[in-house]
């Protein structure tokens, strides 16, 4: 299931948005993204949720709601806040006790941050 979400997030990177960092957790997802002009956050989330819900439901041989309707978003106002948000996403598995979590990544060289394997 996580692979489906990751593939979806990466699919339109550099076209509809700039994917900065992401983390797929067992019960939620974190994404730091910069939408391109005509692709607002609400539209992006709808396409991600719709596509992944259909794919995961097919994988699990089930129907019905997969994602919650609501989401929590945060406007990033400057480089320091962006760096803090990226760091939060990258450290999320570690803070949750998930060591060597593979479902987390950051755009190469972004602010010099790279994912931790500890």
Break the fold down into its secondary structure elements and pairings.
Elements: H1 2-11, E1 17-24, E2 29-35, H2 41-59, H3 79-95, E3 104-106
Antiparallel strand pairs: 1-2, 1-3
Helix pairs in contact: 1-2
Write up what this structure looks like.
The chain is an alpha+beta fold and 118 residues long. The protein has helices at 2-11, 41-59, 79-95, and strands spanning 17-24, 29-35, 104-106. A hairpin with a 4-residue loop joins strand 1 (17-24) and strand 2. Helix 1 packs antiparallel against helix 2 (41-59). The radius of gyration is 14 Å and the shape is globular. The model is unreliable at 113-118 (pLDDT under 50).
Within the CATH hierarchy, at the fold level, what is the topology?
A: Alpha-Beta Plaits
Biggest sheet descriptor: 3 strands, antiparallel
- According to DSSP, the number of beta strands is 3
Give the CATH superfamily: Transposase IS200-like
Task: Classify the secondary structure makeup into a structural class.
Answer: alpha+beta
Q: How many separate domains?
A: 1
The best one-word shape is: globular
The averaged pLDDT comes out at 91
What's the CATH architecture name? 2-Layer Sandwich
| Radius of gyration computed on alpha carbons | 14 Å
Q: Counting H and I runs of at least 4 residues, what is the number of helices?
A: 3
Query: Span between N and C termini?
Result: 23 Å
Summarize the amount of helix as a percent range. Answer: 25-40%
Oligomer: single chain
